[in-house]
């Protein structure tokens, strides 16, 4: 019998508004955190090594029969997301048949880029997966995709490339918000850990609300530990949405339909929410 819940934690600042004030001490040894980049958390969750936590929204779609989505938690944006960028040597419209380097830390964003380039721009390109080091990625590519803090650091360097925010492109073409990460839970652990799961979910919601009530402690923390200007961090967090309501769900399910059209998913996916009552919620 598993005594504790194993919770994933993304090693990017975009999740901090949900996790920064999380009161881990009150759970004592009933929970443990596993901190990795999204692609690693996706794999660990699929292998059953993590029970719940944020994963790429694309990974949820791949494993929807095994996972549920925890309500009112996500990393989303309606417009610019501020940390998911395509760096390009030429205008995006001129990238047909170009080699493009993709970060190996992502799932949602690399497939979002494929949807945008193929469906909305009508481009055919070639892709390669690489470690998220922009200078090396651009040696053999015309464009490169970076996400999270890797993308933020690259922007600060004022690199000599055209820069496209994928959240902004998605909104321009669809009018929808885009959800990049979801807090999910494996269905297999629900029966054994229903009460603890409810406590953990509430703790994440409380942490998020504490940040919304007073963002400055987090702004100060990231400024001290990640550099950059406080005003830039303030603007960045204000541009993110950490809710998951009907608006985010509609945009995400449209993304799944687009991905299915492009052969990136076997078919469209409907998001299934976990409910404390034990009755799951479909639209």
Automatic annotation (TrEMBL):
UniProt xrefs under PANTHER family: CHORISMATE DEHYDRATASE (PTHR37690)
Catalytic activity: chorismate = 3-[(1-carboxyvinyl)-oxy]benzoate + H2O
Pathway the protein takes part in: Quinol/quinone metabolism; menaquinone biosynthesis
Source species, domain of life: Bacteria
SUPFAM superfamilies (alphabetical): Periplasmic binding protein-like II
Listed EC numbers: 4.2.1.151
Lyase keyword on record: yes
Organism whose genome encodes this protein: Brevibacillus borstelensis AK1
GO biological process, one term: menaquinone biosynthetic process
Protein name: Chorismate dehydratase
């Amino acid at each position: 019998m598993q005594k504790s819940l194993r919770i994933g934690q993304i090693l990017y600042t975009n999740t901090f508004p949900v996790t920064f004030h999380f009161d881990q001490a009150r759970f004592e040894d009933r929970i443990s955190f596993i901190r990795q980049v999204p692609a690693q958390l996706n794999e660990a969750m699929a292998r059953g090594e993590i029970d719940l936590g944020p994963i790429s929204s694309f990974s949820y779609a791949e494993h929807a029969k095994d996972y549920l989505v925890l309500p009112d938690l996500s990393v989303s944006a309606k417009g610019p997301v501020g940390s998911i960028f395509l760096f390009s040597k030429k205008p995006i419209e001129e990238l047909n048949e170009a080699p493009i380097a993709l970060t190996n830390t992502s799932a949602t964003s690399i497939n979002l880029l494929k949807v945008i380039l193929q469906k909305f721009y009508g481009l055919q390109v070639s892709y390669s997966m690489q470690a998220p080091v922009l200078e090396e990625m651009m040696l053999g590519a015309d464009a490169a995709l970076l996400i999270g803090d890797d993308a933020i650091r690259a922007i600060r360097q004022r690199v000599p490339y055209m820069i496209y925010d994928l959240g902004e492109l998605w909104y321009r073409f669809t009018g929808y918000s885009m959800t990049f990460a979801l807090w999910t839970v494996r269905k297999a652990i629900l029966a054994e850990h229903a009460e603890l799961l409810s406590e953990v979910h509430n703790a994440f919601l409380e942490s998020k609300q504490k940040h919304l009530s007073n963002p400055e402690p987090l702004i100060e923390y990231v400024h001290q530990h990640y550099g950059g200007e406080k005003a830039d961090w303030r603007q960045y967090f204000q541009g993110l949405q950490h809710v998951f309501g009907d608006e985010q769900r509609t945009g995400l399910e449209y993304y799944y339909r687009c991905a299915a059209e492009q052969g990136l998913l076997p078919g469209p996916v409907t998001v299934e929410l976990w409910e404390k009552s034990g009755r799951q919620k479909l639209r």
